[in-house]
Structure formats: C-alpha cells, structure tokens
Specification:
By secondary structure, the protein is α/β, with parallel strands linked by helices. The chain contains 17 helices and nine strands. The longest helix has 21 residues. Bound molecules: zinc ion.
C-alpha cells in the first residue's frame, strides 16, 4: 500500500470537498486481502494468537458477560407501570433536538438499519425514540493487559481481514456506518459539516457523527488524522481502556501517565485539522495536558462526575469547569456501574451536578449505549429514554431540558464542524 502523505489531505480541500463516498487516494476502498498480506506476516500472527487466547481465558474468568451482546429486556417493564406524563415526555422528545454523544453499536456487527431485540441502539429504534443525532464510536482495542479484541471480533463474526490490526478494525467500522446510512433509505446520514445537522433535521434524517475511541487505531500515523477527517470522523479520544503510545488511561493502577511526544503531535494535528478531542478515558494528567492545549477543542463523549461517584473514569469539577470554559460539552453516561446507583435518578444526580458546575450550556447525554454497561433499572434501550426525559421535566424548566437532551451537543458540533 502506498504511504499516506499529509499533503494528500489539505484542510481547505477537506472543508470544500468532503469526499463523500469517494475513495481517498492512498487508502482507496477497504481491500481485505491486501491489508492482510501487508500487515500480517505468518509467524507474528501465531504469537499474537497465543497471547489473545491467554487474554480471552483471563477475561472470561474475570467477567463472563464481557463477550455477550447487551440484551434488551424482552419484557417491557417500564410500560406496565407507565406513570402519567410519560406520553408527554415522548412527545417532548419527538419535538426536541435529542442528541447522544456515545454509542458503541458498530462493534457488535448488527445491521443498524434493522430494528433488533439485541443491544440498545439502531436506526429504527433511534427514530422511534425521537433521537436526531447519534454519535457512533469506533473501538479497536480491548482491556489493558489482556487485549482479546481480535477474539471478541471473531466471536462477533467480523470478517477476517477487518480483525487483524487496529487500523483495519477502524476502517471496517467507519465503512460499515456509511454502508448502513446508504442502505437506510434516506433515514440516516453521516454529518460532516455544520449545516448537515440542520439539513438532516429538516429532511427527517438521523445525523450520525463518527468518533474514534483511542488513537492507537492510527498505529502511530499522525497523518492519518487528515485521512480520518476526510472520511467523516469528527472527534477522537487519544486513549481508551489501557495506556497506549499516546499517553495514560484513567483505568485503575496504570500510573496516571501524561501525554507522550507522539500524543502531543497527534493532538497538534487534530487541532490543526479541526477534529475535536474526546477526553473520556484519559488519565487525569492527559486530561490536564489536553485542556492546556491552546487550540484543541475538548469535550467528553461519556462520563460521570466524580463528586457524585468516585469511579476511576469520572471527571472532577475542575476538569468539567475547564471543558465548559473552552466551549465543550460533557455527555453524562447511563452505565450504572459508574454512577453509584442503579436507578434513573442516579443519572439525573450526575446531570444536576454537572449543570451546577458547568452551567446550562455544557451538559448533554453520553449514554454509552451498546458499550457493555448495565443501564438504569427500567431502561431496556434507547426507546426508554423518555423515562429520563420525564424525570428531567419534573425538575427543570423545558428550555433547560431541551439543552440537556441535545441542544448543547448540537451547538458544540455546529461550532466545531467545518462550515
Ligand atoms: Zn468508553
């Protein structure tokens, strides 16, 4: 494969001509056989496989549910005891600009154009819930120390060529989202420019926003930032669950490392190109390093607040305040393991604290749907989002609920996307 060159992706070109559905020079369409031959000499593969099998056994021993797709509750517990006001909340949601900053749906290899009983999110269910913008994040590496992502991907029936390297895994997921949008019959489209969000809304289309979880997916290639931007990726977290060559993760016992030289170069390139940086999963020192960057556009796609639950991945007040000062938004996570409680009201507690610290214009939703985390009791999937909306409407005036449900995230993306 020809080496990528940053000059192939001048920023002006990316903004004027977003290359929609056109192969990018140097990384034409995804060519499985070529990728495989280029990246995986036979013996490396064998050692890699042994390591993965060890990792898999360890993960199964620690957390047997890790490889199971989140199962939407078949029984509709919430509808049985639907309190009055629920219909109002559903109507409210249909009329509001509802946006969610984080879903890991691409890693489960489901067809997102089909309504499924598995997982939390697909285009039909998002439409039913009145969601207007959904961020889809690309995951390419598993837990620290054990890895095991290639085996996870094999178990979920990813094609062989898409499983082998982090870059090929990322490419495959990006291409799949575009394929789903093409297949969707005009009900979903990847939003690349600021005006796409309003255009999609007026045409009744879901805006899909692409993000990367962990810049190890670029395999050290800083110039790939431009390529990803050209392919529609609008935000990226530098780190995921483990430390990587870019810097430290917030995962426990990993030493709170800061950004490496490569991490700084990657951040500079993102700022230059106009790709926002997601601080989710970053160590405290990396969060500080990102927030100290004069040109970066920081936000957080999914987080709890540390003042409400002292989880390793929740943000402290100082970081929240600085994100808001920089015009960023924090999406509040629904995963109950990080909230210090299993009820919807626990999500509300985190939202409330974030609003108190960051103000009304910087808090949004960051569900982590399909991210292997348990949802609050009574919430099967995105179709039960109205329960949270109802809880918010009982506490706050409607304009504030609209901001939290999605207007703040829309404002952030409209400010940071190319015009
Ligand atoms: Zn995550």
């Amino acid at each position: 494969m020809p080496a990528l060159n940053a000059r192939d992706f001048p920023i002006e070109k990316l903004i004027e001509d977003p290359l929609e559905d056109r192969p990018v020079r140097g990384q034409a369409e995804f060519r499985p056989a070529e990728v495989e031959a280029h990246l995986y000499p036979g013996d490396q593969q064998a050692t890699g496989l042994r390591r993965e099998i060890r990792g898999l056994l360890l993960v199964w021993a620690i957390h047997p549910g890790q490889f199971r797709q989140p199962k939407a509750h078949l029984e509709r517990a919430s509808s049985k005891r639907r309190h009055c006001g629920a219909m109002d909340a559903q109507d409210f949601q249909r009329q509001a600009f509802v946006a969610d900053a984080h879903a890991d749906s691409l890693m489960w290899n489901r067809d997102l154009t089909i309504s499924s009983t598995e997982g939390h999110v697909d285009f039909p269910r998002l439409r039913q819930a009145g969601v207007k913008l959904q961020c889809f994040t690309v995951v390419t590496r598993g837990l620290p120390l054990v890895g095991a992502f290639p085996l996870f991907a094999a178990y979920r029936h990813w094609p062989r060529a898409a499983r082998r390297s982090e870059w090929s895994r990322a490419s495959w997921q990006i291409d799949r989202l575009k394929e789903f949008c093409r297949k969707s019959g005009g009900t979903a489209a990847v939003a690349r420019r600021a005006q796409d969000i309003g255009d999609n809304l007026r045409s009744g289309r879901l805006s899909a926003v692409l993000g990367i979880e962990g810049a190890h997916a670029l395999e050290g290639g800083v110039s790939r930032v431009r390529e990803l931007f050209a392919r529609g990726v609008r935000f990226m977290g530098l780190i995921h669950l483990g430390n990587n060559e870019l810097g430290g993760s917030s995962f426990p016992w990993l030493g709170d490392k800061g950004l490496s030289q490569l991490g700084r170069e990657m951040l500079d390139e993102m700022a230059e190109v106009g790709m926002s940086v997601d601080v989710a999963h970053a160590s405290r020192r990396v969060v500080d390093d990102i927030l100290a960057h004069p040109k970066a556009r920081p936000f957080c796609s999914h987080t709890g607040v540390r003042a409400e639950a002292a989880s390793w991945r929740n943000l402290g007040d100082a970081a929240l305040r600085r994100i808001a000062d920089r015009g960023g938004v924090a999406g509040i996570i629904f995963g109950t393991v990080f909230l210090g409680g299993k009820e919807l009201i626990d999500v509300v507690r985190h939202i409330e604290h974030a609003v108190n610290v960051m103000g009304e214009d910087a808090v949004g939703l960051g569900s982590d749907f399909d991210g292997m985390v348990p949802l609050p009791r009574g919430m099967r999937d995105v179709r039960d989002l109205h329960l949270l909306t109802a809880a918010l409407l009982r506490r706050y005036p409607e304009p504030l609920v609209q901001k939290i449900l999605g207007q703040n995230l829309r404002r952030f993306f409209e400010e940071t996307f190319p015009q």
